[in-house]
Amino acid sequence: MCYNEVSVMSFIYDLNLNYGGAGVFEVLSSIFKYILMTVIYLFIYAVIRLIYLDIRSVNAQGKGAGKNTPYLKLINRRENLNFKVEETYGLEGNIVIGRSDKNDIFIKDPYISGTHARFTQREDQFFLEDLGSTNGTLINGEQIGSRPVSLKDGDKIHIGQLDFLFVKKSK
Amino acid sequence: MLKLLGLKQPVVLIVLTDIIAFILLYYYKKPADHYILLTGLLVISLIITTYFIIVKRRLGDEYLFLIVSMLVSMGFAMIYRLDKYMGSRQVVWFAAGIILFFLSYTFFLKIKILEKLMLYYIVVSVLLFGATLVLGQSIKGSTNWIFIGGYSFQPSEVIKIIFVFTLACFFKRSDQVIFGSIRLGFEKLGRLYRLAFMSVSFMFMGFLVLQREWGTTLLLFLIYISLLYVLDNNTVFFLINTAAAAAGGVAGALFVNHIKVRIDIWLNPWADIAGKGYQVTQSLFAMGSGGFFGTGIGMGRPDLIPEAGTDFIFAAICEEMGIFGGAAVVLLYFILTYRGIKIALSVKDVFIKTVALGLTCMFGFQTFIIIGGVIKLIPLTGITLPFISYGGSSLTTSFIALGILQAISQISSEGERSEEIAGE
Amino acid sequence: MRENKRIIHVLVAICLLFFALIAYLTYFEVFIKGDILSNSYNRRLWQREEEVTRGRIYDCSGVLLADSVKTGSKPERIYPYGRLYSHVIGYNSITYGKALLEAAFNDYLLDIKGRNSIFKFKDRLDERKEYGYDLHLTIDHRLQELARELIGSRNGAVVAMNPKTGEILAMVSKPDFDPNNKSLNQKWEDLVESEDHPFLPRATQGLYTPGSTFKTVVSAAAIENGMKDIKFEDKGTVTIDGKKIRNTNGKAYGTIDLTRALAVSSNVAFSQIGVKLGNEGLHSLAERIGMGKEIPFDIHVNKSRFPYGEMGKTDMAAVGMGQGKMLVTPLHMAMLTSSIANKGVMMKPILVRYTANREGLREKEWKPSRLYYTMSSLTAYRLRKMMEEVVKNGTGKNAAIKGISVAGKTGTAENELTADSKDKQHAWFIAFAPADDPEIAVAVVLEYSGSTGGKLAAPIARDIIKDWLAR
Lengths: 171, 424, 471
Description:
- The complex is a heterotrimer of chains A (171), B (424) and C (471).
- By secondary structure, chain A is α+β, with helices and mostly antiparallel strands.
- In chain A, the strands form 2 sheets. A 6-stranded antiparallel sheet of chain A has the order 2-1-11-10-7-8. A 5-stranded mixed sheet of chain A has the order 4-3-5-6-9.
- Chain A has helices spanning 2-18, 21-62, and strands spanning 71-74, 88-90, 95-98, 105-106, 117-122, 125-130, 137-139, 142-144, 149-151, 156-159, 162-167.
- Residues 1-9 and 14-21 of chain A have low confidence and may be disordered.
- In chain A, a hairpin with a 2-residue loop joins strand 7 and strand 8 (142-144).
- In chain A, 35% of the residues lie in helices and 26% in strands.
- In chain C, helix 10 (215-224) crosses helix 12 (267-289).
- The N and C termini of chain C lie far apart (95 Å).
C-alpha cells in the first residue's frame, strides 16, 4: 500500500517538474471535473441509499409495533457488537433474514449468510426454516433444516453470533 | 467492483473528493505549494477522525457530519482556489468548528435547564444587539460586525441560535429562571402569553431590521412562522402574524429605499450593470460560463465575482463545478434538512423537538435565501451559505448548531431504545 | 402526533423551495445564459484575448483587412482600411463588445474550441505560442474599394456576388464608420444617436421596397403560369379596383408583349399581371423566392417581408409592380439576381471562404452549396433574355457595356417618404453579366435618392461589372 502511494506521489511530482506550468494543470482540471462530479454524486447516492435502507429496516421492525404481533428480541449486548442491529424485529407474514441488503431483515454479521433463514406465517402460527446457511440456524440449541419448524413463545433462536427471543403474546 | 474499492462507503468518497481537490489545488499556482498537500492531509484526517468517533462511540446520527464534511470540502476547494490565505484560515475555523461541535454536543446533553433560561437568552441578545449598534461597523451596507483585537465577528450568527432557543422556551412553557430560585411561570402571563411571544419575536426581528440585515430578518421570520405553524393551534394568531409580517414587508418594499433598490436589481439588474446590479450580473455571468460540468477548478474566473468567497460562493461553484455541482450542493442541503426533520420527528419533549425543528429550518431556509438571491430567483440578501461560505462566525456557529442537532439525535435514539426495552 | 404531521408539511415546503432552486438553475442554463454571456461586461470574454493573439482577416487575394497588435499587455485590433469594411468585419472593442464577423467568428479568431478540447492537450502541454485562426474572406478588395467609391456620398448598399458559387465579392453599406478602437471610443455617442444610423449594415439588414426590380420575378411567375405570350394594350394608365395606376410620366406604349413590358417597366402591364396571378399565384411566388425565410449567412440577415394575408386587387396590383408592403434586403435581391443568372438555382451566400492557421494550413472550408430553386431553368433562360432586352432597348441602357451582354433591371421604389415629398424614391438596379455565362451578379440600392434606378444606380452596376470582367 505505502509503496504504491509513494510511486503515485513521485509520478505527480515528476509531472510537475518536467512539464510544469499551466499545461499540466489544465489537462488535470479538465479531466478531473468529470471525475469529481461522479464522486460527489456517488456520495449523494450512497448516503441516500444508506438512509433508505435504514428506513426500511425501521419499518420492518416497526411493522411489528402492533400489540399482538410477535417479534424477535435481541439477547446479546449491542455494545459488544461491531455491526448495527436493532433490539427488536417485528414479524409479520414472510420475512427473510440474512446479511444481504435485499432481505427484509438484514444484519451485517459476518457469521450470517447472505440469505440465512426464513420466517413464514400460516394463520396464527409462525415457522422458521434454514435457507442453506453456512453456520446453521438453531432453535433452543438444536440445528434446524430446510423443513419449517413451528415456533412458540419463549423459543431461543440462534443466528450467526446473535441470540433472539421469539416473543408471541397470546390474545 | 465498487464494493472492492470501498466506494459504497460515503466516508471513502469524501476522502476521494478531497484528494482530487487538493491535488488540483497543488498544481494550480506556480510555484507548487507543498503546504496545500499538508493542509489537505489535515482536513482529511479531521474528517475521518471525527466521523469514526461519532460512529464508534454511537454519538447519534452519523449522516449529519458526513453531509456537512462534503459541503465543507467543496467549500474548501473553491475558497483555497480563490485565495490561499483565506483557505488556510477556513481550515483553522473548520478545526475550531469541530471542537465546538463536540463541545456543544456534550453541553446540550448535560445541561438540563436550557429550557428555563429564556430571560437570559433575551438579555444576552439585547446586549449583543446593543453592542453591535454602538460598537459595530457597517460593512457592505449592514451594521453587523464587531471587531475585537483584529478579529471580526458577526453577532447575528449567534443570535439566530439564541432565537431558536427562546422560541423553544415559549413552546415548552417551563418555569423560567430569573435568579437563584426566583421563577417566572407562564401561567402568570395568562392571556398576555401570546402577546409576549409575538413581541419578543418581533423584537428580535426589529433589531435586525435596524441593522439592515434583511436576510437574517427574513430567516428569523421564516423560522418563527414555521414553528408557529407546527406547534400552535390558534389559526387566528397565525394569520395575524402572517398579516403583520406581510404588511411590514410591503411597507418596507414601498418606503425603504434600500429594499426598493434590492427589488429593482432583482427584477432587472441589467439596467445598472456597472453599479447596483454589478454583483448579481457578475454572478450570472459566472454561472453561465460553467455549463453543466463546470469549467474545471482553476479554469474559470470566479475571481471576477464580488464576494466570491462569502455570499457568492455558490456562483463560483456553479462556474467551476458546473450546474451539476450547484445541484449537488442543493441536494446535500436537502438531505441535511431531511435528517434534521427526522430527528425532530423522533423526539417527544416539546422543547427539544422545537430546538431540532428550529435549527433545521434555520439551515434549510438560510440555504434557500442565499442561493436564491445569488441566482436571481429572489432578491439578493447578505447572508452566508452555511458550512461553505468563508467566515469564522458562520462556520463556527453552524457547527455549534450541528452539535446541538447531533445531541438531539442521540437523545432520540436513546429514547427509542428505552422504548424497546420497556416492551411496546 | 398532530405536530409531526405538520413538521412533514414544513419538510415538503422546504423540499419545494430546493426543487425550485434546481429547476431555475436548469432553466437558466438552457434558456437564459446564451443571451447574456456576450454582454461586454462579462470580462471572461476578454481573458482569452489576452492569452491568444486574435486571428487576422484577409480578402480573397491575401490583402490584410484586420490585424491584432499587442501594445504592452493589451491587445489592439487594427483595421488598415477602416470604414471600408465596417459593415462586413465589424469591430472588436472592450467597451462596446464585438460586432458582425468579429462576433460571429470569435470562436475561430481566438481558437476557443481548441483551448477546451481534451484531445488537444498534447499541444497545450507544450505551451506553444498561441494564435487564433485567420479568416480568409471571399471579398475582393479592389472591387470593394471601387463599390464604395461609386456610391460616393449617398446612402445605400452594393452587393456583388458570384452567381455560381454564392461567394460575396463585394458588400458595401453606407453610411459607415471607423471601427478602429480609438475612433470608436471617441465617436460612439454620436454614432449611436445619429439619425442616419451608421451602425445599420444596409446590405444585410436594410429593408427596402424592391420597386420595379421585382417585376423580374413576377415575370417568371407569369411565364410559369402560362402567360408567356400575353399581350397588353398599354394606354399609359389603367384602373384597378377603382384606383388609377400610371406608368412613369404616364407614357403609353401601345400593344406590348411580356418582354417589352419588362423592358419599359410598364406599370399598366404588371399591375394586371399581378391581378391575374391572384392571391395564390403571388403567395406562391413569394414563397419560392424566399420572402420571410431565414437566409443562412455568416452574419445576421434580416428576413425579407411579405406581410399579406388574403390580398385584394389593389394589393395584387401593387405587388405585381413591386410596390406595396413588401420589403427586401439588398443581399436578398443580389441572391435573387444570382439565381436568375444561375439557371434558377439560388446558392447559399458565403463570406468566409476558409480559416487557416498562421502557417497557412487550412483548418475549415466552406464550400458552395445550394439553397433552393426559385424558378425552372427554362424560365430563368427566358427571363434572362428579357433582362438583356432591358439593357439593350429599355430603361437600363445606362448599364450597357460594349462587347458584353449585360442582363439587368431598373427599379424606382416608392416608400414611406414619397407620399409626402418628391424625389425620395429608392433607386435600384440589379444585373448580371456576361448574360450567357454569368460571372458576377450585382444589386445596387440608393436610399431616398430622388432619381430613377436607370439614371443613378445602373452606372454603378455597370462600372463594377466592367471592372470585374476586365480582370
